[in-house]
Amino acid sequence: MEKSSLNDIYSGLRERIESLGYDCVGFENVTEDTMKILRIYVDLPGGVSLSDCEAVAREVNVYLDEMERSLPERYYLEVSSPGIERPLFTLEDYRAFSGKEAQVQMKGGKKVSGTINGVDEESKIHLLSADGEICVPFPDIKKGKLVYKEEKGQKKTFKKIKKKQ
Q: In the chain, what are the domains?
């Protein structure tokens, strides 16, 4: 499928999702276990529920049915919350999450991790790692995500189950 055609479809999807009142975080077109998946991430200030994901899926399904001729082949639609290890799709995402831990996979396969320390005017992402500052050109990034890190003093939300003897 042509990249411009896919970008047009993503723009149409973004319009519909945002008209419903959701933040369209981004899209992934991936293959997992030979299944083609169109994954859409949506969010709200208080988070999204399963019923929110279902509502978005119903709306975008109507649009995707209209665009069927432009779609390459069979695929599964998945609508999801971005979660605590939120994917980072745009330069604005990296700016918004400055100060947070992130992992970036480069187009060559190399992975780098560190605290996001901003984005410069040359579209380079600055990460502070144990080895110092790393500057990653945004066009060289294949995939980026936040990395959950438990903070000191953070209250655990799960209980350890004791075995009866």
A: 3-80 (3.30.300.70), 87-146 (2.30.30.100)
